[in-house]
Each structure stands twice: as C-alpha cells, then as structure tokens.
Amino acid sequence: MFSKVLVANRGEIAVRVMRACKELGVRTVAVYSDADKHSGHVRYADEAYNVGPARAADSYLDHEAVIEAGEKAGADAVHPGYGFLAENAAFAAKVEESEMTWVGPSAAAMERLGEKTKARALMQEADVPVVPGTTDPVESPDEVKEIADEYGYPVAIKAEGGGGGRGLKVVHSEDEVEEQLETAQREGEAYFDNASVYVEKYLEAPRHIEVQILADHHGNVRHLGERDCSLQRRHQKVIEEAPSPALSDDLRERIGEAARRGVDAADYTNAGTVEFLVEDGEFYFMEVNTRIQVEHTVTEQVTGIDVVKWQLRVAADEELAFEQDDVEVEGHAMEFRINAENAANGFSPAPGGKLETYDPPGGIGVRMDDALRQGEDLVTDYDSMIAKLIVTAGDREECLARSERALEEFVVEGFHTIIPFHRLMLTDEKFRAGEHTTKYLDEELDKERIERAVEKWGPGDSQSEDDDEEVTERDFTVEVNGKRFEVSLEERGAPAIPTPSGGGSGGNTRSRPDVATEDDEDDVVIEGDGEQITAEMQGTILSVDVEEGDEVSSGDVVCVLEAMKMENDVVAERGGTVAQVLVGEGESVDMGDVLVVLE
Ligand code: MV4
Fold it and tell me: PROSITE patterns from the entry (predicted)?
C-alpha cells in the first residue's frame, strides 16, 4: 500500500478519499486554491498545498501545480476524485511518468473509452448491446437520412467528444437533418475541439441505469450491481438509488454481466461505471465513465464494499479479494445531492452566503458525505453540490420513509439548498412508484409544485426584496401550563431587529451582481445604468436566449451557462428591455463578466 496519497480535488469527494486513506493507514495531502483556504478538505488532510488562484483552470486544473505539490509532499500516489482532472488522459499520463502512481485506469484505457465511436465499436465487439446506429463518424446529411430511413425517426446526432447532453441533437424528421447535423458539428467543435459526429436511433423515454465495476491488474473484473440515475435535471443527476426499481432480476443479471464483459475487453482497470439506457425491457450501452462517481455511495451501501479503498488497493497492485458470487446486493439506498441552489428559480446556484446553520440528520441508515462546518462562507467558485445525504434501509419502501425523516431533520440556513425539492420528490407518486424516466423532471413535473415546495420548506421569505412593507418576524418559545409552544411574532412596518448575523431572513435575498471591474479582459463598454446580468461562475455559454430589443421580465432566462458540467439558467432579476448582448454561444466567461445589459 502507498504511504502518502495526494488528493487532487476538493470538498466532499476529497474528504471521502482521505477517509479511505486514513482507514488504510495512508497519510493524506490536500491541494487547495485561494478560494478554499478554509475548506473542509484542507482541514481533514495531514498536510496541504496551495496550487493557485480561485479560478479552477489556474489551480485544481493546473497539471504542473498539482504534480509539483505531490512531489514536494513526497506523495507516492495521486487520487483525482471526480470532475477536475479525473478523466483527463493527458494528466493521467503525466502522473504515470512521474514517481507517483495514478489511482485510476491507465491513460491508455481512458483514451480507448473516451472516444464515443471507439467505445461503441469495442462494446459491440464484446457482445454488449449498443443503441442501433453508426460506429463510424458521419459527415453528410444524406448519411444521416440513410440511417434514419433504416431505423426510423427520431434519431440522435451525437458529438464524438460529447457527454452529459452536450452536443446531442434530436432529429424528428427529414427536414431537420441538415440544420441539426450542422449544430451538432458546430457544438462539437466549440466544446470539445472535435466536429466529428455519429448517429443513433433516439430512445424517447429511457431509464438511465449504470453498473459499477472494479478491475485489478491481475485480470479480475467484478461488477457491483446497478444504480438507477433516471431522476435528472438537464443531464444533472439529483437523486440516485440502488438497486433500480425498474429492472427484473433477469435484466439485472444480464446488464451486470454485459458491463463486466465490456470493460474486460477494454483491458480496463480500477473503478469505472458503464452507463446504459434501458427501454421496454432492452438495454443499450451508452458510455463508460473512467472515474469514481458522485453516486458510488449507494453501491457501497447495498454491497458493503468500499469502492474507494479498492481503488487504492488495486492501484497498489493488490488483487480483488472477492469473487463475483460474493457480491450480494442487500436492502436499498438513495443518495440526495444537496446543492446550494434555488429549485424554484431554475435551480440557480446560490450567489453566496454564510452557512448560518448546518444541522445534518443522523440515526440509523443515515450517511452524510460532506466537508462543511457551520459558520463557513459558501464557496461559489466551483460545483454547487455541498453535501450528499445517503439513506439506507431494508427495502425501497423503508428507504423512502427514512429519507423523508432524514430530510425533515436536515437544517441548512444562510442560502437556498434543494432539500425542499427532495422533500417534494418523496411525496411524488411517480417517483415513489419508481416509474420516472429521464424525461420526468424536465418535461413532466409541474414547476409550480417545485415553487410551492420551496415556499413551504425553503428558507424564510419575510424580508424579501419585493415586500413593500418591512415585516419583522421573531420566534419565541413559551411554556403554558407546563407545555412548550413555539410562537412566531410578526410586526409590520417596524424597523428590522438587529441579529448577530445582521440578516435573519435566511439566504434567499439575491445580492445585486457585481458590475464589471477594471481587470476584465475585454474592453466592453457597458451603456446606461440598467440591470447588468453577470456570470455567477466561470464557464461556457451554451445558448443565448435573448437579443437586443427583447422584453424580459423578472425570472426570465437570458442565457444558459455551463460550468463544471452543469447547465445553469442565467435569469434577469428585475427585467426590462435588452440593451446589449455581450456574449455568444460557445464563448467562455469568467465569474463577474457582464453577459446581458437591460434598460
Ligand atoms: C440518448 C438518449 C436517447 N437515445 N441516446 C444524454 C446524455 C448523453 N450522454 C446521452 N444522452 C442521451 N442519449 C439515444 N440514442 C437519451 C439521452 C438522454 C438522457 C440519458 C441519460 C439520462 C438523462 C437523459 C436526459 C435526456 C436525454
């Protein structure tokens, strides 16, 4: 086993990996950016190195800075977590060339599976069902039409470099082929530097089922059963569970074995996930994720196998100590991603705030993976996921009840989280019945139900900006005849009662975005004194939804910003007429950049 591991990540996953290290008697090294000086993963590690400024590209994504930290610390291995450098084959190769061991699949295996048509061909070869379509790139509209004529519309045009819904275009009829082909190629070029695309039959309402794999350097490959990740919002998973409520035992067995066959054929090692689409009792290979995933926890809960520990052991050339038949799935587990977002406002990330209260649930069947402490400031430079609640029970029914209980216990104050959304889902018939498909959140769930859930369970709203009248609310506990009562007093028109935190209304008042500052790279002249809509994080503009002269009202989406693989609606706060649009599709922006100006 290693003696010291550098964890090239932050937040909950960095702590998750360090916990595994600790149990194996391995010392831990954290890296951190200027924005993370006081973050949980830095506290948890035995030692920590600053790798640069807040901007991920200048710190967590800086290959040389991360490797240099590992060498300075004398680490003998690097664990990348998920996101950041985890699926970067070039970085994996640099670690392989250093004195340190890469805790993950070889750079070569990452490359073999990273390119979609290569992975499809490889799986087909290994007798793993793939979605009907091409394994070679297509270039002309005629080729697309030929395939569509064979399998029938709709078909999907997918960018070779794509993933997570980026560069995926659905074509419903022949007259859309030309335009969608061009768009897919253009997006592929813009996002992945690769205009190459291929075509598949489009499945209308599939479930997303993925299989956890572990493989060692001695030829052993095991699967740890499946996870159901069908509950997604814009390709962003929100709740995952194991086992899937949608699979028969027979289908479960066949998917597991197919995943195992596929990665075996790819000479893959370490942990990985094989993603499938499942529709009408058939399953189809989609892609392989060559990293530990956010939702690995539910697999750990139902198998009792510590996936992260095995990643470390396998990387240290140890042999998997269990046979496929030893892997038993017992009970049921669900993971709830706790994102600092307002679900009633298009899941927009909290603009900032202080963790005034952090009181996570506990008790039987409750696991919290986080890296937080009450009183901290929210770090808004990276992913908005601040914690994961994982609930385990004897069966799905008990897991639902236990999850309701745990989410009711969970108190976070200071900014919005999606806890109210999770509580809504636990009352949702379709979800409770396990009948939701990947379309459910985006196309079927009534948005007003989300708004009501946030009103009911979200942070208080008594001092929100649009209240004409000042309303002050204070809570008291009184005792009458020996019985306790919670009393809430409201006073209208009174000055706010100062509280130690100076706020008191919870975190849902959005501060006015920063105006452009002098150090902005581009010399953009911003006219007038209307609302300036800015980027809340560094990322790429996926779409611009307004043009000059458009009327927008409060809450309207003006563009979609992708950051850390998430699609975030950028909304107008006050509304008005669009005076300037300062960005275009595919452009990258920094935090604070002005995107759209209203007058
Ligand atoms: C598909 C599909 C239907 N048919 N491919 C979206 C993410 C990208 N990695 C693949 N995706 C899809 N590919 C065919 N041939 C539907 C999706 C899809 C989806 C897949 C998994 C989870 C959520 C999804 C939401 C929308 C579309």
Answer: ATP_GRASP, BC, BIOTIN, BIOTINYL_LIPOYL, CPSASE_2
